[in-house]
């Protein structure tokens, strides 16, 4: 089945630093999505990407849909303490209701 | 506007028992998907329902079943519970087919513990 490799598994950074995380797959996806999950809550959608090569920003967040359609990255600029959480990438094929998730990148921001 | 609501939020069952989890999607959303999230891992797709019909099924045994009602709410049923079924069960809603259905909106989940 489809699998996503998300890296790094965890990151410890200083407030104000930039962060980069990525996701790769052996399969092609039509859509890439990035979610953030806080403890005790469900994932919250941050950015959705629908076209290969697409670069999309949402505030301090920027994500790109890889040209090969097998990868995506998420950048967070000037991190703040509330960026702490688990970030998940997810890919979708032809069935948009079925998302394949990575195992997450746990971000810790030190003030 | 209310988001996706799930109930119960927490429950404890014993092996062999049955559980029913409930989900109400965002108003206007016609598609509901269920995911299982084991601690330390990403959510895993279980089912998707759209217009009361199953549109996708993940790699889960037949002990897992679901349905969607005319008001688009949904139930996930798990029979003959095993210890390994302990997880956070997430419901996600989306507008439905024909739209940018990639955008899933998740509830806070139902935390199931099987003893």
Describe the structure.
The complex is a heterodimer of chains A (111) and B (115). Chain A is mainly beta and 111 residues long. Chain A contains no helices and 11 strands. In chain A, a hairpin with a 6-residue loop joins β9 (85-92) and β10 (99-101). Chain A starts with a strand and ends with a strand. Chain B has 115 residues and is mainly β. Chain B is built from no helices and 11 strands. Chain B is globular. The relative contact order of chain B is 0.33. The model of chain B has no long low-confidence stretch (mean pLDDT 92). Chain A binds chain B through residues 1, 4, 6, 31, 33, 35, 40-45, 48, 50, 88, 90, 92, 95-104, and chain B through 4, 31, 33, 35, 40-45, 48, 50, 55-56, 58-59, 90, 92, 94, 97, 100-109.
Annotate the secondary structure layout:
The complex is a heterodimer of chains A (111) and B (115).
Chain A: E1 4-7, E2 10-14, E3 19-25, E4 31-37, E5 44-49, E6 55-58, E7 61-65, E8 71-76, E9 85-92, E10 99-101, E11 105-110
Parallel strand pairs in A: 2-11
Antiparallel strand pairs in A: 1-3, 3-8, 4-5, 4-9, 6-7, 7-8, 9-10, 9-11
Chain B: E1 5-7, E2 10-13, E3 19-24, E4 31-37, E5 44-50, E6 53-57, E7 64-68, E8 74-78, E9 87-94, E10 105-106, E11 110-114
Parallel strand pairs in B: 2-11
Antiparallel strand pairs in B: 1-3, 3-8, 4-5, 4-9, 5-6, 7-8, 9-10, 9-11
């Amino acid at each position: 089945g489809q699998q996503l490799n998300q890296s790094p598994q965890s990151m410890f950074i200083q407030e104000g630093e930039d962060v980069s995380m990525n996701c790769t797959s052996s399969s092609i996806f039509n859509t890439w999505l990035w979610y953030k999950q806080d403890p005790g809550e469900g994932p919250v959608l941050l950015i959705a990407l629908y076209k290969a090569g697409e670069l999309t920003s949402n505030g301090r967040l920027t994500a790109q849909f890889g040209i090969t359609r097998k990868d995506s990255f998420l950048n967070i600029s000037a991190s703040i303490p509330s960026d702490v959480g688990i970030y998940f990438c997810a890919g979708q094929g032809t069935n948009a209701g079925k998302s394949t998730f990575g195992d997450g990148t746990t971000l810790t921001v030190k003030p | 506007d209310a988001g996706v609501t799930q109930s119960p939020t927490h429950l404890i069952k014993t092996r062999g028992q049955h559980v029913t989890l409930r989900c109400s999607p965002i108003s206007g959303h016609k598609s509901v998907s269920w995911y299982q999230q084991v601690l330390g891992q990403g959510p895993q797709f279980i089912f998707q329902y759209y217009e009361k019909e199953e549109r996708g099924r993940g790699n889960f045994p037949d002990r897992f079943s679901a349905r969607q009602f005319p008001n688009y709410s949904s139930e996930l049923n798990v029979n003959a519970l095993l210890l390994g079924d302990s997880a956070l069960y997430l419901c996600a809603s989306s507008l439905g087919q024909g739209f940018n259905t990639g955008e899933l909106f998740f509830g806070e989940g139902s935390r199931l513990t099987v003893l």
